[in-house]
Amino acid sequence: MNHPILSLDADSIVRLSSLNMILPISDKKSSIVQKVQVRRGETSLGEWLTRNMVGAIKDGRLERADEFSGDGRHWTVLGEHHQLKRYFPKIQPAPEPPGLHQQLSEMADLLEDLKKD
Fold first, then answer.
1. Which residues contact 72 (CB under 8 A, 6 or more apart)?
2. How many domains does the chain have?
3. Of 26, 65, 87, 90, which is the most buried if we count CB atoms within 10 A?
4. Is residue 15 part of a domain?
């Protein structure tokens, strides 16, 4: 079985099941320039050369929630793709608001009081 591959940059190769072609990467002269469609929500970001995507992720032009497609029908979220997600910064959990546990405790007490009535 052939596995379609895209050359993202000199160091990265991404296997995508939604594309039906193999891009030779061993011989630079025979490399096919591959483009994919990229969208952010309903807004098209146009066609992107696959070899430019990692750089665009690193410099913030492409976002984790953006999607790409080789055929315009099957879309993959960039931040969920097993080989692309490593290029996005790690998501830091938001700090808890001050007094959150106290407020939750008070709400729980109020709910208990309501149950008694």
1. 37
2. 1
3. 87
4. yes
Q: What whole-number distance in Å separates Cα of residue 87 and Cα of residue 59?
A: 10
Domain that holds residue 34: 5-90
Chain mean position to CA 80:
5
Q: What pLDDT, in 10s, does the model give residues 38-61? A: 999 999 999 999 989 999 999 999
pTM (predicted TM-score): 0.53
Phi first, then psi: give them for residue 73, nearest 5 degrees. -115, -40
Handedness of CA 85, 19, 75, 63 (dihedral sign): positive
Evaluate whether residue 16 is within a structural domain.
yes
Instruction: Share the mean pLDDT of the chain.
Output: 78
Q: Distance (Å, rounded) from C-alpha 29 to C-alpha 21? A: 17
Answer whether residue 101 is part of any domain. no
